[in-house]
Design goal:
Elements: H1 2-14, E1 22-33, E2 39-40, H2 43-52, E3 55-59, E4 64-67, E5 73-74, E6 76-79, E7 87-91, E8 116-120, E9 127-133, E10 137-145
Length: about 150
C-alpha cells in the first residue's frame, strides 16, 4: 500500500495530468469473455498480461504507442486529452497489425478497429489504463506521467 501511495503522489506532483502528454502504463490484470459469455482467465489473458502487453508508453499528443517490446505504432486518436483533459481513447488501425492477434495464432491479422486503449485521468486520482483486445480480452492497469 505504501508504494502505491508514493506512486500516486509522484504522479500528481511531478507533472499535472492535464499538462502531461506521455504516460508509462503497466498492465496489472485482465479477463476474457469466454464462449459461454462469462468472464474468466485463461492462458491467452495470462500471456497478454505477462508477455504481449505488459505495459505501454502512450504519447497522447502524437498517438504513438509502444506496447511491450514491439516498435512504437501510430494509433488513431478518437478522443485526445486536449478535448477532455481526463479522457484519452485511441484505436489501432488495421494497417498496423504487427502485434499478434493471439498467442496461439501469431500470424493472424488484427480485426478492423477492435484494439482500443483508454487512459482515464481524473484530476487527483491515479491515471487508469484499459485495453480492449479482439472484443473479448480486457486488460487494466495504471500509468505514471513521464512528461
Amino acid at each position: 500500500m505504501k508504494n502505491y501511495l508514493i506512486a500516486v503522489v509522484l504522479c500528481v506532483t511531478a507533472t499535472p495530468v492535464s499538462a502531461a502528454t506521455v504516460f508509462k502504463c503497466r498492465t496489472l490484470d485482465g479477463v476474457v469473455i469466454g464462449d459461454d459469455g462469462k468472464l474468466g482467465r485463461d492462458i491467452t489473458v495470462d500471456t497478454m498480461v505477462t508477455k504481449l502487453f505488459p505495459g505501454a508508453m502512450v504519447d497522447t499528443q502524437s498517438g504513438l504507442i509502444k506496447v511491450g517490446e514491439y516498435p512504437a505504432q501510430k494509433w488513431k486518436v478518437l478522443r485526445g486529452l486536449a478535448d477532455q483533459p481526463w479522457n484519452f481513447v485511441a484505436t489501432l488501425p488495421p494497417a498496423h497489425a504487427a502485434i499478434p492477434a493471439t498467442p496461439s495464432s501469431p500470424s493472424s491479422p488484427i480485426p478492423d478497429m477492435t484494439e482500443t486503449i483508454r487512459l482515464y485521468a481524473e484530476p487527483g486520482d491515479p491515471v487508469l489504463f484499459s485495453v480492449m483486445w479482439e472484443h473479448r480480452i480486457f486488460l487494466s492497469g495504471t500509468c505514471e506521467v513521464v512528461r
